[in-house]
Write a structure and sequence with these properties.
The complex is a heterotrimer of chains A (418), B (226) and C (337). With 418 residues, chain A is an alpha+beta fold. Chain A contains 12 helices and 15 strands. In chain A, α10 packs antiparallel against α12. Chain B is α/β, with parallel strands linked by helices. Chain B has a single domain, classed as P-loop containing nucleotide triphosphate hydrolases (Rossmann fold). In chain B, a hairpin with a 2-residue loop joins β4 and β5. Classes of the chains: A alpha+beta (418), B alpha/beta (226), C mainly alpha (337).
């Protein structure tokens, strides 16, 4: 065993020294390899952590959201329906919500306006105000909207005539506390609201383009009658009854559409899996090109390398020793490229906000959330990455390695001249 | 003792380019002797040497090394026998460029997994014996022709082989260096090693220390006595 | 099909594995047909060189099988949110009928590839390729199984449609619904199962030690090591997992490899797989013990294999025992699940 280890050490030493002797040749391969790993790793880190982020936020959302649908479109929800919902067995609480979008022509951005839940009036127990909803748009597409995030008001009090802004908006319009923001209401009049504070940036993914507003101002701005709200959320006593309650809602209110949290999660997951998968399919062309390049590089041994292997075999190295040497060579190159690529991707995604891929992956972009994703990397991602990069490279080099290793030992005798 | 019985070697068998390099060679090489294989180029010297030295296998016939049949041994066993029994000196020094003389000299011992410290001491001793210890750390490219050959001799000796194989060792040396080389061979003989040399250099096969000259022509041994 | 990076990686791994095995098999057949150790002809020399290629390929396949086994479970686990009712890998594997067969074949192939490498190692020690025919016969057996695995795995992943209602580990491996092998194993009473596990394990270990010391009962040990492998898997489902999760009803063999349980499952499974491969290796090599060219080294190697296997099984038992003792879950005799 000790002999074996010693032998591997010799071989590794020799491998590294011969890699360093061919710096220029190997550098190109290494750079390309690292780039491939970097691109794939960035994609995966990004989609996985955004999925994770979404699922963390969604964890505290109400079990069911109920919307009213008219002609397949999301419509205002009549307040009178709420009592019907409350009567359904298994429903713990029903809460109405007011939210919507406002297009600001000045900066060409879409804001999400939201009325924070009135504390402790609709439901008896005080629920934490951490809620988010993602509503899948009617077309079944990928537009994901958000309304109530994990926000912290930071002591700001919301009263009629004021609003609280998300960080993105504050940044975009360069405004802060006590500034005024004008809005053009549905009837053309101008509504001037004072900024009472900014949201903490804990979860900028959802709160960046968010404006918190009072119910009164919201109705004034959009001209929504008191009898209507945007939608309602339904809390269910027993989590395993969610599907059951949802089907009861569908029965009681045929024009309503209940959306359960699990469905939202699933949709979110599908969207990002699909996006990540698409990116990988696109990159697979790059991986393939790289694999061909690696194959070519491994089989096209220079005369110098052939000679070197011939000498090694002549002085007493065996075919499997040479294969082992080449294996270590591959391992050194692969691991260097893999870890460099992964680390670069980590920095890229989690510290620089994925500058390269942002537009492709995020997909919705009214106002860019300039958020830092919580680093989330697990073994599954790394294994997947390994399989998508190192495995193809390694396999592509097996046959060329074997060819190189089976050079005749007596070829060294036939070398004449330099 | 190495015995060759009816050894044949054919290259590209079955192809139009079929080429018999050796034809029914019978040869016994005794221990502690200096044997020279002599012949014009293309006579099969190198092929014969590579079969004798377990570098390649004959197409037919048998090879016995110290009474043990080695003809049909798998490559890994042949290699194992080869690296423990034979030391190789080639026409060219065949050193690997870019690494130090010391590393080059230790190369044949790597697959054996010997302790590094031991190996280094052994290598340094070998270099000292041929007066090139001061070059141990220099790169191979900086050696003169004679130094390079001496380095390759040290490399051939690193695993302490019984049999030294030298393929046209003086082809690239001037007369003075060739005489130096023959002195080294003499030393091997004194140490009890067996030496097998291929050469068509009179300086080698006419040397007084050579015990036997085997003449090869067209893949056959000529019966003319040495 | 679900376009998920891990799914792509799984399929890629499985295609690469099968490709490599097919390629190896191609030359394997030539070796079976034309091998003639006495010949010095070029064909024989070429074939001998091919053996290096084949054993390199097979060692990569072996490594790939091990890694892809875990990747497979990972993937199944991370796809769970896409399926109604699936909470972990168990549910995802159940979305279509190919999930479990693919997993089983993956484990089988890992073991077979391991046995092939053991045979290969032994063969390389003999100076006349003593096991070459058996080696390539085994390869001829392994190749179709790996291809079958590839077909099943493709069918599994390509046929996947999100939103299919599946059962999750709460129901499949729950003792309430007694249908299917999974729940039958799960519904085995936890404590007796544990005693049974310890009982058979002790026999195995004793048998292994006897074999190591006296060289007797090699086949018995190989058989026992396969048996205890299966029993260990059953014990993980029916009782050991309970202690790890500290829940009296959660019988999932996959969740233990997750982060929440500090990846303890990897250690357990890797030890277990290593133990069964080396244990079965004893049985695979025993018939060749009297081959002339292997006489000197083989029985030593077999004993080493047995020792490795015994040590790994002992480590597995120790780890399991530690988990049970340190768990806050206590299963008493009266409780019947």
């Amino acid at each position: 065993m000790r002999q074996w280890i010693e032998k591997q050490r010799y071989i590794i030493d020799f491998t590294i020294s011969s890699l360093l002797r061919r710096k220029v040749k190997n550098f190109g391969l290494l750079a390309l390899y690292t780039l491939i790993v970097f691109m794939l790793a960035s994609t995966m880190f990004f989609t996985y952590s955004i999925k994770k982020e979404a699922s963390l936020i969604l964890k505290d959302t109400p079990e069911i959201i109920v919307q009213k649908i008219v002609a397949g479109r999301h419509d205002l929800f009549p307040v009178s329906y709420i009592d019907t919902l409350k009567k359904i067995r298994g429903v713990a609480a029903v809460e109405s919500r007011l939210w919507g979008y406002y297009y600001d022509g000045l900066v060409s951005a879409n804001y999400t306006l939201l009325v924070p839940p009135a504390n402790g009036d609709t439901s008896g127990k005080s629920r934490p105000s951490a809620k988010t909803t993602v509503v899948v748009s009617e077309s079944g597409g990928q537009q994901a909207d958000k309304s109530k995030p994990l926000f912290e008001l930071g002591g700001a009090v919301l009263e009629p005539g004021t609003l609280i802004t998300g960080n993105g908006i504050a940044r975009l319009r360069d405004i802060g506390k006590d500034d005024y923001m004008p809005f053009r209401a549905f009837d053309g009049s101008v509504l001037n609201l004072r900024i009472a504070g900014a949201l903490s940036s804990q979860s900028e993914l959802v709160s960046s383009d968010l404006l918190l507003i009072t119910a009164e101002d919201f109705r004034k701005l959009f001209g929504i009658d008191n009898r209507y709200v945007t939608d309602v959320t339904v809390a269910v006593n027993n989590p395993s009854e969610v599907e059951m309650v949802a089907s009861k809602i569908r029965k009681a209110l045929p024009e309503a559409r209940p959306i359960s949290r699990v469905e939202i999660l699933r949709t979110y997951d599908s969207i990002f899996n699909w996006r990540g998968g698409m990116m990988i399919v696109i990159f697979s062309a790059a991986v393939l090109a790289f694999v061909i390049f690696a194959w070519d590089k491994a089989s096209g041994l220079s005369a110098g390398e052939r000679r070197e292997i011939g000498i090694l075999k002549a002085v007493g190295w065996e075919t499997s020793d040479v294969i082992q040497m080449k294996f270590w060579e591959g391992a050194v190159v692969s691991l260097t490229a893999f870890f460099t690529g992964v680390i670069l991707a980590y920095v890229h995604v989690f510290f620089t906000g994925s500058i390269v891929f942002e537009p492709a992956l995020k997909g919705w972009s009214s106002l860019y959330p300039n958020f830092e994703l919580t680093p989330f990397v697990n073994l599954e991602q790394l294994t997947t990455l390994f399989f998508l990069t190192v495995v193809p490279y390694t396999v592509a080099t097996i046959v060329p390695i074997w060819r190189a290793a089976t050079i005749d030992p007596d070829s060294a005798m036939r070398f004449t001249g330099e | 003792m190495i015995e060759l019985m009816n050894v044949k070697k054919v290259f590209n068998a079955g192809n139009p380019s079929e080429f018999p390099a050796l034809n029914s060679v019978n040869l016994t090489i005794e221990e502690n002797r200096v044997t020279v294989l002599k012949g014009p180029s293309g006579s099969g010297k190198t092929t014969l040497l590579s079969i004798v030295a377990c570098m390649s296998r004959p197409s037919a016939g048998r090879v016995k090394l110290k009474g043990r049949e080695i003809t049909s041994l798998p490559e890994r066993f042949l290699t194992d026998i080869r690296r423990k029994t034979f030391g190789f000196i080639f026409q060219q020094p065949n050193l690997i460029k870019g690494i130090s003389v010391l590393d080059n000299v230790m190369l044949p011992a790597y697959p054996l997994g010997e302790q590094r410290l031991h190996l280094k001491v052994k290598a340094m001793k070998g270099l000292a014996e041929l007066n090139i210890a001061n070059k141990a750390a220099s790169k191979v490219e900086w050696l003169s022709g004679g130094e390079a050959q001496r380095a390759s001799i040290v490399r051939a000796l690193i695993n302490d082989p019984h049999i030294i194989i030298a393929d046209e060792p003086t082809a690239h040396l001037d007369t003075k260096l060739s005489y130096r080389f023959m002195e080294i061979i003499e030393k091997f003989k004194a140490e009890g090693k067996t030496v097998i040399i291929t050469s068509h250099d009179p300086l080698v096969f006419e040397s007084s220390m050579v015990d036997r000259v085997v003449n090869l022509r067209d893949g056959r041994i000529e019966d003319k006595p040495a | 099909m679900i376009l998920h990076p891990s799914v792509i990686a799984n399929l890629l791994a499985s295609y690469i594995s099968s490709g490599m095995v097919l390629y190896a098999m191609f030359y394997g057949v030539q070796i079976l047909r034309y091998w003639d150790i006495q010949s010095g002809h070029e064909l024989q020399l070429v074939l001998e060189r091919k053996t290096y290629l084949i054993s390199t390929l097979l060692s990569y396949v072996f490594g790939l099988q091990l890694l892809s086994l875990f990747l497979f479970i990972f993937t199944a686990d991370s796809l769970a949110p896409l399926f109604v009712g699936a909470m972990c890998a168990v549910g995802t594997l159940n979305v279509d009928p190919y999930g479990y067969p693919a997993l089983t074949l993956k484990i089988l192939n890992f073991i077979l590839a391991g046995l092939w490498l053991i045979l290969n190692y032994a063969d390389n020690q003999g100076y006349d390729y003593p096991l070459i025919k058996r080696k390539y016969q085994l390869l001829a057996f392994v190749a179709p199984v790996i291809i079958l695995e590839m077909i099943l795995e493709s069918a599994y992943f390509l046929g996947m449609k999100p939103d299919v209602i599946t059962s999750c580990c709460g129901s499949l491996f729950s003792s309430e619904r007694v249908t299917g092998l999974g729940s039958e194993i799960a519904s085995m009473p936890a404590l007796p199962m544990l005693w049974f596990f310890y009982g058979v394990m002790s026999c195995t270990l004793i048998c292994g030690i006897v074999f190591y010391l006296k060289g007797l009962g090699g086949y018995l040990y190989a058989a026992l090591s396969l048996l205890i492998f299966l029993i260990s898997l059953a014990a993980i489902i029916s009782s050991i997992s309970l202690y790890i999760y500290e829940l009296p009803t959660h019988h999932c063999p996959f969740c233990i490899i997750m982060e929440e349980y500090s990846y303890i499952g990897y250690l357990l499974y890797i030890i277990l797989f290593g133990a069964v491969v080396s244990g079965l290796g004893v049985g695979v090599l025993s018939p060749s013990r009297n081959v002339e060219s292997l006489k000197l080294m083989l029985s030593g190697f077999i004993r080493k294999l047995a020792l490795t296997s015994v040590i790994l099984y002992a480590a597995f038992t120790a780890l399991v025992t530690y988990k049970i003792v340190s768990s806050s879950l206590v299963i008493s005799y009266e409780v019947v699940y």
